[in-house]
Write a structure and sequence with these properties.
Elements: H1 11-20, H2 22-28, H3 34-43, H4 48-61, H5 67-75, H6 81-91, H7 101-108, H8 113-122, H9 128-134, H10 140-150, H11 157-166, H12 172-185, H13 191-197, H14 203-213, H15 219-231, H16 237-252, H17 257-267, H18 271-287
Length: 288
Amino acid sequence: MSARPEERPSKRSRERSVLERLEEIEDAGDRRETAALTEALLRRRLPDETAAEVADVLSALEDPRCMPALFAAAEDPSVPAFVRALSAQVLSSIPGDDPPRETCIRWSESRDAVLRSLGVQFLDAEDSERIARAVTDPEVFVRRCAVESLGTLVRTPPTLHALRAALQDEDAVVREIACRVAFFDEPLGVTRELQRALRDESRHVRSAAADALQYFPRVSTLLALSDACEAGDCPTADEALSAVVARVKEALGAPSAAVRERVARWVAPARWIVDEHVRREQARRREA
């Protein structure tokens, strides 16, 4: 009896297999599955949570070959809005040629929120004021894209004002992104907003704010981070406080006596925090 030829898996079964291996594909950086993932995102009616997971994997793969299909989907009003928004999200993660500036401006002025988000994320420094205005867009995913774009811009009064507004946005993801932008840009003009974010209702925002504040060596920052450590609900506060204290200690040990004196006067209102933190660190090392 001759052996039956091996049956080829159907397209649907191959897609199902890809969806079951999302974590494996992402960990391996396996771009061989890009086409199947793109097809699953754009052609199948996936549950929102699964579609978002597929988009996250495509973002991690950063495969330029899926860009034409994603641009087409993002521009097509007949595609479900959530899938269009996910397509725009993936496109923001892929290194490739940006659309022409005129196209991006046209998108950013569209009445269609997905097109506005798409335009904002590809605008450049010469359109910084346009990006800053988009931070207050009525649609949350446009605001998220706009705040991400702030991180690529040189700091100006309009962009600083926009970042300050984003740190107070009603959406926790916008606030978290704004904290991450402050982490890299270090604008002292948003110190107060970052300190308030240490008491944010979102744990992710609190952690992002503490991460950013380690580069804002002010007495008020020492006090705010100390309070966050005492509250115990900000997992990165202790690490951030350690970083600020280390900078203060370094300055207190400067070769110049005049510098040491100025730093000592400056830190005097919170010197007890520095000394207490040093004692705790010494106790931890002795116990280790």
